[in-house]
Design goal:
Blueprint lengths: L1 H10 L13 H14 L5 E11 L4 E10 L2 E9 L2 E11 L8 H4 L6 E11 L2 E10 L5 E8 L6 E8 L3 E10 L2 E13 L2 E13 L25
Antiparallel strand pairs: 1-2, 1-11, 2-3, 3-4, 5-6, 6-7, 7-8, 8-9, 9-10, 10-11
Length: 228
């Protein structure tokens, strides 16, 4: 009899996953506000990104970024499919990271939110809201999708300038909530322009050496030997 019960337990069909329960929109917004207040950025990080542009100017670049606070080391690894060896390196101090939650996420004090509904994301729900700024900022969020587990933005749609629109998506890498992709559409000189940034290869070291943010030394130059 024990063997019968064991066999039934071992070979029984697995129970279907519980259906995610939709939360009231006011609860979602309250948790979203708390998640924004509690958000912390990694103290140090590095990542790669690929930039693709088409329209008024077509180009593709691959960069590797190292950051601590406002200090950034930007290494251009490839341009239009051509690998740079050595990479072109630029050092920036006091440069904000333009693709962060604190900078991009619409805050309840600055926006009104209109609930649109949910969509399934694996076994949980994400919550979609239209966003209307209470003022008239140059950069304005038009829609935000709130992740149903972290209650941080999973996608932020925005408008900027005359006719410019775009979307930034976020997701979890390790224990951090970071940008995964940013796209933008606009018209420049009457031509449709498109830009995409794809972020990858995130790393989160405890710190970075100060030499990472030192200005790169120029390559040594040699005087030609007489007669050559």
């Amino acid at each position: 009899m024990i063997a019968t019960f064991l066999a039934a337990a071992l070979f029984a069909a697995p129970a279907p996953p519980a259906e995610a329960k939709e939360l009231p929109s006011v609860t979602v917004l309250a948790r979203y506000a708390r998640a924004l207040d509690a958000y912390t950025a990694p103290p140090a990080l590095s990542f790669d990104y690929t930039l693709e542009q088409s329209g008024a100017r077509d180009m593709e670049q691959t960069h590797r970024i190292f950051r601590i606070g406002p200090n950034e080391r930007d290494e251009t690894l490839a341009v239009d499919g051509r690998k740079l060896d050595p990479p072109t390196t630029r050092i920036f101090r006091g440069r904000p990271n333009h693709y962060t939650i604190p900078l991009l996420a619409p805050k309840p004090a600055q926006y009104d939110f209109t609930y649109l509904g949910t969509h399934h994301d694996g076994r949980h729900l994400d919550y979609v809201f239209d966003a209307t700024p209470k003022g008239a900022p140059a950069y304005r969020v038009t829609r935000v999708t709130i992740d149903g587990i972290t209650f941080l933005p999973q996608a932020i749609a925005f408008a900027a300038g005359p006719g410019g629109t775009g979307t930034v998506t976020f997701g979890r890498v390790s224990r951090w909530w970071v940008p995964l992709e940013a796209t933008a559409h606009a018209k420049l000189d009457g031509l449709a322009a498109f830009e995409r940034l794809t972020f990858s290869n995130y790393r989160f070291p405890d710190s970075l050496p100060s030499s990472a943010f030192a200005a790169p030394r120029p390559l040594p130059s040699f005087k030609p030997i007489a007669g050559e």
